[in-house]
Amino acid sequence: MTALAAGAGVGRVAAAVKAALAGLDPAAIEAMLVRHYREWRLLDGAGRWVTAALTKAEDRLRPPGLDRAALERFVDAVARLAAANPYLAGFLDQVVGADRVDEESESPRGAPPGEDGPGGGAEAAGDRPPFCQAGGARSVRAWSLRFPVLAARLATEGTRVLPDVVTFAWALEALTRLMAEDWRFLAFTLDHWRQGRRFIWGSKNFRLFDHVKLLSIEHLNARFVECHRRGVVPPDFMRVLLPLNILEAVAWEIVEGYPGNARAGLTLARYPPGAPRENPATGEGPSIWTADRRAILLRTACPRAWSDLYTSWNLAFVSQYDTFPYVMCKLLVPSVLGYAAQPAAYIYYRCLAIHALMNYAYLGDGGPERSRITDLIWRDHRLTRAWSRHNRRCARQYEETVARAVQARP
Fold first, then answer.
1. What is the DSSP track for 66-130?
2. pLDDT given for residue 213 in this prediction
3. Burial classification of residue 276, based on how many CB atoms lie within 10 Å of its CB (0-12 exposed, 13-18 middle, 19 or more buried)
4. Which residues, in sequence order, are bridge partners of residue 286?
5. Of 159, 177, 231, 260, which is most buried, counting CB atoms within 10 Å of its CB?
6. In the predicted model, is pLDDT for residue 5 greater than 80?
7. In angstroms, what CA-CA distances link 180 with 57, 100, 173, 232, 347?
8. Whether 87 contacts 116, CB under 8 Å
9. Going by C-beta distance under 8 Å and a sequence separation of 6 or more, which residues neighbour residue 92?
């Protein structure tokens, strides 16, 4: 396999995303932002914010003159944070820089005929994904053979889809930060989106798992609001809820045939937050407020490594979605991915982002322009399979990290 500098894979992916933004002007960016906020039911049909709190935050949600350079800086910020996660960066180094086809397999259930063969690849020079174009013919062919569906989608749809994904991620980041800074804004979104869903008779693109997830995430964020209102965090907060949340996904992965990722999820579930006592060796302990009382610290074993593993595990899980470029945003926006200084707050911020993401998916379904998302078929079983294998190895590395921490404590 071609040797890459650590984080080179992240850099090449970021370069590809930025290349897809070429030609975007502020008017096009503004139009995409307006569409996103309307699908969230935060802007009305006349383009007005639906509440005074949103109007007050307009400069953060829709800053005037937002341009391509600002979006490129946003992509660079995400890339820097992603490169700091050794599990995620290691996977991207492996797959983006590969010069051979990896023949190991985990056979997913129901893989469509031909998806794992070379026929769907984009191998013509003009059809190469941007991060393959600089890698030489061998790298291009290896990418196309390994991930034929994704390579073809990037070649034919990338310049249309990726700008919409980046502006969605930008808006998701703005909303997540507002919820993180003021729990009252989080409470508003819970009530507003719950009321909005009352007028929609289901979502044709939501699976049973998605409905369960939406309700469980809504319940969890309501618990956050309750903690803020009362000013108290139960010491065992999320000791049961978080493993259950993870095991929901693990069960799905077992059914779909991705045992490596299921193994990583089981490892995460074994080390929940809310331990009854502090463990100086591993960092585990009762759930507590952050110093500014804006977020809740959910202290798992070796929380930085745990959060690194969770990010890679959950990204692999959502790569099973046809619309995964949008779904991955919940884990990649800086307010979620920037956990290095305070990794125990990671799950709190991640829950805010997924709350916004799932309501976006539900409330916008069936809208006049939503087919741009629901018609996507970007899922590539080979990508998920490779990531699943990688995360099995990462789970072992995490367990070794915890074991070393315990042994190092006198």
1. --HHHHHHHHHHHHHHHHT-HHHHHHHHHHHS--S--------TTPPTTTTSGGG---SGGG--H
2. 85
3. exposed
4. none
5. 260
6. no
7. 14, 44, 10, 17, 12
8. no
9. 9, 10, 12, 13, 82
- Spatial separation of the C-alpha atoms in residues 309 and 160, rounded to whole Å: 31
Contact 194, 218 (CB under 8 A): yes
| Unique residue bearing structure tokens 């026929």 | 119
CA distance 268 to 392: 11
By C-alpha distance, which of 36, 8, 361 is closest to 166? Answer: 36
Please say whether the beta carbons of 159 and 20 come within 8 A. yes
- CA 350 to CA 370: how far, in whole Å? 24
Instruction: Judge whether residue 1 has pLDDT over 80.
Output: no
Q: How far apart are CA 337 and CA 317, in angstroms?
A: 17
Rounded to 5 degrees, what angle do the CA atoms 266, 240, 228 make? 130
Nearest to 242 by CA among 346, 150, 136, 151: 346
Distance CA 172, CA 61 (A): 9
Q: Tokens 């006349």, residue? A: 46
Residue type, 98: A
Residue range 254-303, pLDDT digits in tens:
999 999 999 999 999 999 999 999 999 999 999 999 999 999 999 999 99
Which pTM does this prediction carry? 0.89
